[in-house]
TrEMBL record, chains A, B:
SUPFAM superfamilies: FAD-binding/transporter-associated domain-like, FAD-linked oxidases, C-terminal domain. It comes from Blastococcus saxobsidens. This is FAD/FMN-containing dehydrogenase. Belongs to the FAD-binding oxidoreductase/transferase type 4 family. Coiled coil: none annotated. Gene3D superfamilies: 3.30.465.10, 3.30.70.2190, 3.30.70.2740, Uridine Diphospho-n-acetylenolpyruvylglucosamine Reductase, domain 2, Vanillyl-alcohol Oxidase, Chain A, domain 4. Keywords: FAD, Flavoprotein, Oxidoreductase. GO terms for molecular function: FAD binding; oxidoreductase activity. Its cofactor is FAD.
Length: 482, 482
């Protein structure tokens, strides 16, 4: 085993001068995440250009007993790609592995390296008349490798599924430095255990994903969008049922927002306005899509809204009449996260419950939060069609930031306890990373955690692959952290 | 450790008199598969009625060092649910676990026990105005547990995915007799390693699936079906592209058949006739579906066929004009497997290649097969939209059955070698079971097999859970078989 001090020079052998950063000034952007929420130190940042170089880096670090922290676009929300502050870990950035290795519109697949930015995949698909449907706020900078490592979600899940569902094959460098070539572009393959699903969503703790074969779909050629005002979350759930019954699987988006969420956007984002005259407690943005260019979606959407009015489900609605208005309505949805930052600390929670439990869940959670911090401003919004709410919290108006930060953990417990009581998940689409790795132990079955630890031990017996992430500390001891 | 002779009485304690069969006459139907292709012997057949009873059976057998063979509807094609002929294994049938535990049309999920027959799931969904889209020939007798264990496919995969894609949560009894409750009905859940995908497709070698939460979809309310004659597999691939471009994801079925396949059905099935006057080398059955009741699918399909004629892709076509004609066309497709049995031994191969490779793959494989056995009758058909062909073989007309059976292994090698040369899979939707467990070693990456063995060892260190299936024998020794 080499001394840790030798590691940079050994890594230089593995990736060459172009792939190694050891100057602290140059390492900076790899050692702080985009929100400045997480930061760390590193012995080096390596940027391999090929899968073989990734394997060489992993072997070098394993031989030296040094931990590796894989990193994509550095846009995660749970600190999953940040090193610790020991300065002894090595950050393995995939940002030089940006090749679209091939696209096959007949097979409806694209093969990409882990460092390809999500938007580049969407564009490569569009250039062939196809759709790659994963879509999220950070699509201009997040990478396929990160999308895979966190099983990313976003607004397209309702119709197309999570990243996991969009993946046919993977190439992975395992913690022993060997390369598993599972880059199969097959729709059906039943020849043993499905390994790819182990690495998807494992946040780099079982190996480094270096490439993937992803599914493509027929391009969507027409859309219709409506902004609907509703009296309650129950009405939103009822509206999903109405739209499903009348429009079937043309339903491609269904996003809910509380009035509080919309108020923040109206206050802090330039160029937006309330699409409706009166104030309503809840809104949904409904989107239909069709692969036909002239699919009569506007009429379908209006028929669904008609039914919703008749049944007293909807209070008011606007159907967007052109692409400018569509952008304006989506702006209200997409502006929430940023607008909330103007109102003090944003305590973010990303949870799922069964769609049918949403009304009772929101009522119970809101009540408990108001009891814990009277006047708290609850910024609830998200992909309600998937049962996924971003249950974000802002301090009572005019109160102290630090007082609010001081109760962050208590409020998270309120949200998670409520989620758990409805058989929900405390991380819908952001993963566990470092921020939720310990709290998960209180919400996940102990036997399931034991099975997860067994898998970690099997694939990474030395505990050198992204330690300190996903798996809870045992007995409060950071066993795997180095 | 108890003597094996005591096992039946211990099992009686676990499942009661009603759940235990030891009389050889009564065990018969559990010890021979539906085709009479595989048979075995058993110390007992146990039929637990609850998950807790399944766990008690597994613990009892583990303590006694006796192997357990989980069994669903006994309709598999690779012998995956058959015991060996030692008479020492215990068959664990899930056929008494037939409860639909709950259906939630708002959440679009159904929770079912492993012994529920696939058709009963389809019917439970339909009663709520929903669709459960898995559809296969044996749906009247195969069970959800078997569908999960083999990651079943069928004709709906093109639009809805394999069984794996239709599953949100699982309940599993592991080889140590503990119950993992992963019965979550969530569309998004990113809280650690995804365990369910390990058990799906593992053919009962990592544990016994006892229940599942499955996805539902909006019901399909209109369909259009066409029978299209084509000059070549390339034309079939071109036709997929045309239909996708014009009909988008309304395309729900795309099945190819060689003329040889159709000839066998016309010769041996009552009440079918050739829908077209002339003879053509290839046919596809195209199906469009829509969730709207009056969706104009007939016009769309005709427009796609028009384009196919103009581009010389299609030679002739019939659009079905009513449900009787739809049934007649599907009868030609569904009758192939049975009709082939009248022509001597059927050597069956279930393979996938990328859709774009189908034309070259068929040409290369047919040439090699004709070279190996001149005059061989090649019954190629299947789900070409997924790249999945059933490459079945019948002897040359008038030749000897045994001569043909004698070259079965050689011919399988021809098909598999060709499949492998196009980066395909030698088992698309039937699994490995016992029939393909050894041959897979020649087609799967050795490292991948090593990782599979590691997982088997982790979950089932005693090798008592469905031994002799999926994993290749090591060095020709049936290490795990008891």
């Amino acid at each position: 085993m080499s001394a840790v001090a030798d590691v940079p020079s050994l890594l230089r052998d593995a990736v060459g001068e172009a792939g190694l950063i050891t100057d602290p000034a140059d390492m900076g952007r790899y050692l702080t995440d985009w929100r400045n929420a997480y930061s760390g130190r590193a012995a080096a940042v390596v940027r391999p250009g090929t899968t073989e170089e990734v394997a060489a880096v992993v072997r070098t670090c394993r031989d030296a007993g040094v931990a590796v922290v894989p990193q994509g676009g550095n846009t995660g929300l749970c600190g999953g790609s940040m090193p610790d502050d020991s300065g002894r870990q090595v950050v393995l950035s995939l940002d030089r592995m940006r090749r679209v290795r091939g696209i096959d519109p007949v097979n409806q697949t694209v093969t990409v390296e882990a460092g390809v930015v999500l938007q580049a995949v969407q564009e490569a698909a569009a250039a062939e008349g196809c759709l790659f449907p994963l879509s999220l706020g950070s699509e201009g900078s997040c990478t396929v490798g990160g999308n895979l490592a966190t099983n990313a979600g976003g607004t397209g899940v309702l119709r197309y599924g999570n990243m996991r569902d969009l993946t046919l094959g993977l190439e992975v460098v395992l913690p022993d430095g060997r390369i598993w070539n599972g880059l199969r572009g097959l729709r059906k393959d039943n020849t043993g255990y499905d390994l790819k699903h182990l690495f998807i969503g494992a946040e780099g703790t079982l190996g480094v994903i270096t490439a993937a074969v992803l599914k493509l779909f027929p391009a969507v050629r027409s859309r219709a969008t409506a902004w609907v005002a509703l009296p309650s979350p129950q009405a939103a759930v009822d509206l999903i049922g109405i739209v499903r019954a009348l429009c079937g699987d043309r339903l491609t988006g269904f996003e809910i927002m509380s009035r509080q969420s919309v108020d923040f956007v109206l206050a802090h984002r330039a160029g937006v306005r309330d699409p409706l005259d009166a104030v309503h407690p809840w809104y949904v943005l409904v989107e239909l899509g069709d692969t036909l260019p002239d699919a009569g979606l506007g009429g379908l959407l209006e028929a669904a809204l008609e039914e919703a009015f008749e049944r007293d489900v909807a209070a008011d609605a606007v159907v967007a009449s052109g692409s400018a208005q569509v952008a304006e309505l989506w702006g209200l949805r997409e502006g929430i996260s940023e607008a909330q930052n103007f109102e003090g600390p944003s305590l973010k929670h990303d949870v799922t419950v069964p769609v049918s439990s949403i009304p009772a869940f929101v009522e119970q959670t809101d009540r408990a939060l108001q009891k814990a911090v009277p006047g708290i401003r609850i910024v609830t919004y998200g992909h309600i069609g998937d049962g996924n709410l971003h249950y974000n919290l802002s301090k009572p108006a005019g109160s102290d930031d630090d007082d609010f930060r001081a109760v962050a953990e208590e409020l998270a417990r309120v949200v998670y306890d409520s989620t758990s009581s409805f058989d929900g998940s405390i991380s819908a689409e952001h993963g566990l990373g470092q921020s939720k790795r310990d709290v998960i132990a209180d919400y996940k079955d102990a036997y399931e955690l034991e099975l997860m630890r067994g898998l970690k031990q099997l694939f990474d017996p030395d505990g050198l692959m992204n330690p300190g992430k996903v798996l809870p500390r045992e007995d409060g001891v950071a066993r795997a952290e180095r």
